[in-house]
Amino acid sequence: QVQLVESGGGLVQPGNSLRLSCAASGFTFTSHSMAWIRQGPRKGFEWVSSISPGTGRVTYAESVKGRFTISRDNTKNTVYLQMNSLEPEDTAVYYCAKGLWGPPRTNSDYRDYPRGQGTQVTVSS
Q1: Using CA atoms, how far apart are residues 33 and 54, in angstroms rounded to an integer?
Q2: d(CA 49, CA 21)
Q3: DSSP per residue over 28-79, as a string?
Q4: Helices assigned H by DSSP within 1-125
């Protein structure tokens, strides 16, 4: 079955960086887009970024464009999220999601995309 394991979260000060990783198994990784989504305190899910399976085409939410970089290593079945210039508003649990390209039409549609257990990112001074 699909298994996604996120890691790399932590507590950082504003302006610092973190790199998240998501190890995937149980499906053909090279055939699927992968995405990062997040859920802030008392908020719904928010799509952050997606990467296509083949050419590695990427897309970002406006709130993270220019600060975050998504990438994937198909030899390791792993997707990454490099987060620079972190802001307190980036505080959230970050999840990787299988098969999601861009934000879903409604918030309830997030349940259609398998995700891992998440990794907590806290940005605070």
Answers
A1: 8
A2: 13
A3: -GGGS-EEEEEE-TT--EEEEEEE-SSS--EEE-TTTTTTEEEEEETTTTEE
A4: none
Give, in degrees to the nearest 5, the angle at Cα 110 between 17 and 49: 30
Q: Mind listing the pLDDT tens digit for each residue in 62-115?
A: 999 999 999 999 999 999 999 999 999 999 999 999 999 999 998 889 999 999
Give the Cα separation of 99 and 34 in Å (integer): 5
Contact 95, 36 (CB under 8 A): yes
The residue ranking higher by pLDDT, 41 or 17, is 17
